[in-house]
Amino acid sequence: MLFPTKRIAEDCRDFIERRTALDGATVAARLAHLLVHPGGDEVQPRITNGQQSPVDGSGSVDLHIVLFPSTAFSFAKQFWQHSGLGISSRLAEHCLSILSSSDSVTQPPSPKCNRFGLKSSNRHYSVKSNLKTSPKQSAYIPAALAQQSQDELDSGHATYLEERYGRNLPLASALVAKRALRRRIAGVLVRDSADTAERAGDEDLQVGPSSRGANVSEDDVYLYPGGMAAIWSAHNLALSIRPQAKSVCFGFVLSCPVTEHVCSIVYSFPYTDTLKILEKWGPGCHFFGNGVDSDIDELETLLAEGAARDPSKPPVLALFTEFPSNPLLRSADLPRLRALADKYDFLIVVDETIGNLVNVQVLPYADIVVSSLTKIFSGDCNVMGGR
User: Fold this and answer.
1) Do residue 75 and residue 13 come from a single domain?
2) CA-to-CA distance for 55 and 50, rounded, in angstroms?
3) Dihedral angle sign, alpha carbons of residues 37, 41, 42, 48
4) Burial 83-121 (b: 16+ CB within 10 A, else e)
5) From residue 111, how far is each of 84, 151, 158, 163 by CA, in Å?
6) Among residues 92, 89, 95, 73, which one has the least CA distance to residue 12?
7) Are residues 233 and 288 in the same domain?
8) Where in the sequence is the domain holding 212, given as residue range(s)?
9) How confident is the model at residue 264, as a pLDDT?
10) Which of 49, 151, 294, 383 is a Cys-bridge partner for 122, taking CB atoms 3.0 to 4.6 Å apart?
11) Do 373 and 269 sit in the same domain of this protein?
């Protein structure tokens, strides 16, 4: 399995070895480091704003590989799924484009990744200067492409569709784009309108107090490639700085009516990956699946009993909840949970994805908030915006 940084690869190796040991037969995983380099240019440093970047200025890529016996695949898959930290499909495509352009004598060509299933004669995949469409027509280009799904991409299909139509910034603008995102999420932009949008990421732009209901700045916002990566990182941060204790998963029950003939049965099950993260990393998890007031009563009893057994440390590590829940839109009593967190000294992590920062204000009650940029960028969830 491939990962963008050495630390994540080490975390995967440790997870495989720990979980296989619990299963009765420890598997030793190995790490390898692969540099995918287009050649011709000198390899550039990969440190960007104090953080390691898998892609450098010359387009070369650092990949960190975890090697393990096939018998341990299910455990490696669990890490990939729960943490959300594997390499992205776009990074994989970038690597394939480098490998396929290498010398065919020394490097066999890699398979092309045809994400859109289109043929090469499609006129919509010509360069932007050749596109003769009006602004009104351009809004319907995706539908037109879907109708021409029998066509194939041309030889330049490795360039992403959104780049063809100017919806992606160049890689060199990544830091500016991230700065603009952090400022908008933190709510610190003094003026943010269509006229000033292009300057939102300027380094010397004036910013003000947060409008999110708490004292936060752009430096308090961390961007991750996907939702589970943010939740996994929040949990592991808590494990690294707080006394060891079980966490609490509050809510996350999904009720789905399943009808067969004339019988209707309602199944309830937890939001899998968040619960599994809390169960598989650290001491374990207390699960209160409904997220209603009676669950808070039970939680309060559990906290009081834990504090009585050992007053020297908090009875739980952190409480994870959604606000509101998906899909029942059930909203936990955050003020009451906040009061319990202050009394018994544990963290509250709120997933505000369904409400998102435009509609709900949960920061005054939470220590950590996670939210989906994917949902904010597109309600159809047909883009990968990160977390």
Assistant:
1) yes
2) 14
3) negative
4) bbbbbeeebebbbbbbebebeeeeeeeeeeeeeeebeee
5) 25, 19, 11, 21
6) 73
7) yes
8) 171-220
9) 33
10) 151
11) yes
The one-letter amino acid at 175: L
pTM of the complete model: 0.73
Tokens 């992590």 belong to 349
Backbone angles phi, psi at 46, to 5 degrees: -110, 25
Q: Angle 255-258-260 (CA atoms, 0-180°, nearest 5)?
A: 165
**231 shares its domain with 373:** yes
Gap between the terminal Cα atoms of the chain: 22
Count structural domains, the chain: 4
What Cα–Cα distance (Å) separates residue 113 from each residue in 89, 141, 158, 327, 355? 10, 22, 8, 34, 35
Single-letter amino acid, residue 38: P
Give me the sign of the Cα torsion angle 94, 97, 102, 105: positive
Highest mean pLDDT among 105-109, 157-161, 354-358, 376-380: 354-358
Q: 353 burial class (0-12, 13-18, 19+ CB within 10 angstroms)?
A: buried
Confidence of residue 129 (pLDDT cuts 50, 70, 90): very low
Please indicate, yes or no, if residue 117 is contained in any of the structural domains: no
For a pLDDT cut of 90, what percent of the chain falls above it? 36
One domain, residues 297 and 327: yes
CA–CA gap between residue 271 and residue 212 (Å, rounded): 27
Q: Which residues in the chain belong to E strands, given as ranges?
A: 2-3, 30-36, 47-48, 51-52, 61-67, 247-250, 253-260, 263-270, 285-288, 318-322, 347-351, 368-370
The runs of H, that is alpha helices, within 187-271 are: 227-241
With b meaning 16 or more CB within 10 Å and e meaning fewer, what string describes 164-200?
beeeeeeeeeeebebbbbbbbbbbbbeeeeeeeeeeb
Can you name the residues that pair with 164 across neighbouring β-strands? none
CA 254 from chain center: how many Å? 21
Give the orientation angle of helix 73-83 with respect to helix 272-280, to 10 degrees.
110
255 lies in a domain? yes
DSSP structural state of residue 250: E
Residues in the chain: 387
Q: Does 356 lie in the same domain as 244?
A: yes
Helices marked H in 52-140 = 73-83, 89-100, 135-138
Contact predicate 31/110, CB 8 Å: no
Q: What is the pLDDT of residue 279?
A: 92
